[in-house]
Design goal:
CATH superfamily of one domain: Beta Polymerase, domain 2
Low-confidence stretches: none
Shape: globular
Largest sheet: 8 strands, mixed
Structural class: alpha+beta
Strand order of the largest sheet: 1-8-7-2-3-6-5-4
Number of strands: 12
CATH architecture of one domain: 2-Layer Sandwich
Number of helices: 24
CATH topology of one domain: Beta Polymerase, domain 2
Distance between the termini: 100 Å
Amino acid sequence: MQSTQNLTFIEPELTRLLNAHPFIPHVVTRIGEASGVAYLVGGAVRDLVLGLEVYDMDIEVHGLSLDVLSDILSQEGPVSYVGKSFGVLKLHGTLTDWSLPRSDTSGRKPHVIINPDLDIVEALRRRDLTMNAMAINLVSKEFVDPFHGLDDLRKKLLRSPDIHFFCEDPLRFYRVMQFIGRFDMYPDEILTEQCKRMNIEDVSVERIECEVEKLLLKSRRPSLGFRWLHAIGRLHEILPELAHTEDIAQDPKWHPEGNVFEHLMQALDAAAQIDKGTTALNLILRYAALCHDLGKVSTSQVIDGRIRSPGHAEAGVPYTHALLKRITRNVKLIATVKALVKAHMLPSQFVKQHSSLAAYRRLALRLAPLTNADMLISLALADRRGRNPQGHEPLTLTPPFVKTFIEQAQEARALHEPEKPILQGHDIMELVAPGPEMGKLLKYAFNLQIEQSIKSKELLKKMVVEEILKKENRMD
């Protein structure tokens, strides 16, 4: 039976949302005049209930044909079909999708059936989870919750409105994974059992990537999604490189938190608390934290009674490549994460060894153009914070070496990008013709610049002249 109630508990939030998008009430009014009903559905309703920011909206229109809906929307501006066969329209310049209800056939390749007269309850029944199966009637201003999604949100329970429909789309398995991380909610027994055995072989890498990115970027504790994969016995199937770390012990002196898997989970959550300023950088850092110690699987051994993993940073590079290829086809992202994994031990080593400023400049060149020392020290910080023996939450400390590394890298002018060569080809054209010999001399000059912290172009040019004279004397 349909469960409806008034909107008192979220009316202010809904009012603010509609006021920010005044075209929506205009369209809704015209839909009502045409004997249709518009419902705000899905994640927007869920986020309104949770008090979260709503960035995009799905509005489902019942009782109208796609052509009539298109005519109504066109009065507000240009309209395009997101997918005409799927019954989805978009008004240009907005983040709102307008769709008609669907009742697809079952199977791996379902036939899409647009059904404008489908009852709202039946439409919501086909959604993945009860928390996403709530709707707001934008005409009558009623809150529609036939499957008690509001109660499930309060209980932090992930539940399917109808497990039969849930099984028809294997992508929903990965949606459960990312919702666990984003909302710290867990599946009920029925959904858990279904996720343990459902066939997910046909989910494309591109669709998996989308869900994993949401898990990494929108979760306070993205580790919860991976911990759930482990708990239901599917981590070995989905990410074997990560699953293999579950059995790798660590030296309790340095890693009191436990095995490598526990460390990676805590480091990932620590990385999720570090904002690098852009979505792309945040994603790279979180992938790097997830992968940075994968190499311990093949390098860990007992030496003089202590567990050690010599060379694990470099050994982790192929494991990182293999794991990320299961998730993404983004070649540059994979290369960048691999570069960070390979170098992740260097910040603490640099500080411990009192490395020269020239070493910091060489490090910046080594990391460029994929990444930089600023990203590397953020990974080192997440690594160090992922060592809490008292629970699964990462530590919040900032060890002294982090500040020292940043200060040294800044002094070396190498924190965000490598130093650029002062001497260019046109500066020495009167000395040597363009070609291999000029290239060698410019490389020689740049090496002097890096190693001796030379800032004078004239001094570098003088030193190049001296090098030319030396070569000529040797030839004589």
